Amino acid sequence: MSPEIVFGEDRKEYLADLFDKDITEEGYLRDRDSGEIVTDDETGEQMTIDDLGIVYQSSEHFVKDDVGDILHYATEVEE
Amino acid sequence: MLREFFDRLFSSTELRSDLNPFLSADSKSAENTDNQESASIVGDDYIIKIDRVTGDDPFEIDETEAVVTVDPTRGDWRDSKAELKEYWREEAKRAFSESAFELYLSIRASKGDVDEVLAFFDSILSPSQSSMLEEAYHLSKYFDNFNVDSGEEYERRGKLGDKYGSAAQNVPSLCSAGYFEKHGLFRDLYGQLSDSSTQNEDFQDLFDDLVRHRPFVIFVRGESKLGTDELRRRVSQNAAHLDELPVDIDYLHVRGMGGGPKEKISDLKGRLDEEGAKQMSEINRKENGPNELVLAIDTDSLA
User: Fold this and answer.
1) Are A37 and A29 in contact (CB under 8 A)?
2) Domain assignment present for A53
3) Does residue A56 fall inside a structural domain?
4) Among B84, B119, B155, B298, which is most exposed with the fewest C-beta within 10 angstroms?
């Protein structure tokens, strides 16, 4: 198991930039190539920078920082 | 693997030896590169935290918490995005925001306890009630065990309320108080409905009512401005609600943590003693966090 990567609050924008996402005026994450707003992997809800909880592959999947979405990731995706 | 991460950020020739977090003081002075791995002071169990670093170096090592904090926006590390992403793609395969990571760790740690509770309730609650209880239970474990600040707790309770209705905001407190556990109130109430041909439906209606109005408990919060008169009035209100239920709940709990709430509950107990009410107080000792004072009032004895 490789060490986990955790982004502090002060570097969340760096995390967005790392994955080629802009932040709209309303705070939503928007893909730089497609222009589409990032959505939660499970619920399909649009995601703001404050919502950003987990980024995992393959390709890029985004999980909201919400108990239901993280619970789904920990029980359905990871296992 | 942690070493590989740093190697990607720095080629070894660029990294000054006094900045290399993999060398202990001894091996630095010995300049014995063959011993670098064995002399590491950080291991693969460390967490790589990307965050602001205020010292002279662009990283900090916290050996107690096993965290290496890296600030890739500083110094030579400014152009490190490609390397960091390569590490993410090939090694870590995921990245967390800080609060999501702690909640994730809590969910992993508490899964067995929460599953035990859900094994009882999942088949008798509606799917929505069951999902809400599961999420609320995980939040209660997170709040109890991870030293969550009040702002984050308020926000997460609010999100639960947005999703399942405002009454859901209070369910983590009911979980934390043990009302859904073995020998807890809700399992007893389900048993009381066993003669009903519509036991599950009746229980679902009761669950909604009890979660929304919580007639069996009054939580006295730290910021509460409730005086003794108001608390006494609520005790009567709740007792009246309990009388209307199709099940028997003999005791009304008043619960509080910390100096202020405990004092208010003691004052209430004094008032009820004067009235001749039967009651009993106990300390609920929590594994993490402050102990809780619980006053159990026999509602049949209220004037």
Assistant:
1) yes
2) yes
3) yes
4) B119
Give the residue from chain A lying closest to B164, CA to CA: A68
Q: Note whether B97 contacts A6, CB cutoff 8 Å.
A: yes
Rounded CA-CA distance B209/B137 in Å is: 19
Rounded Cα distance, B7 and B4, in Å: 5
Kindly provide the b/e burial profile for residues B191-216, where b requires at least 16 CB atoms within 10 angstroms of the residue's own CB.
Answer: ebbeeeeeeeebbbebbebbbeebbb
CB contact under 8 A, A53 and B96: yes
Out of A18, A57, A74, whose CB is closest to B81? A18
- Written as six digits, the tokens of B117 are 């509770």
Nearest-CA distance A9 → chain B (Å): 7
Please give the domain boundaries of chain B with CATH numbers for all domains: 2-95 (no CATH), 97-211 (no CATH), 215-303 (3.30.110)
Examine residue A3 and state whether it is found in any structural domain, yes or no: no
pLDDT tens per residue across span B76-118 = 666 677 777 888 888 778 999 999 999 999 999 999 999 999 9
**A28-71 pLDDT, tens per residue?**
999 999 999 999 888 889 999 999 999 998 668 999 999 999 99
Which of A15-24, B70-79, B207-216 has the weakest average pLDDT?
B70-79
* Residue A24: domain span: 9-77
Whether residue A6 and residue B95 make contact (CB cut-off 8 A), yes or no, is yes
Q: Across the interface, do B52 and A55 touch by the CB < 8 Å criterion?
A: no
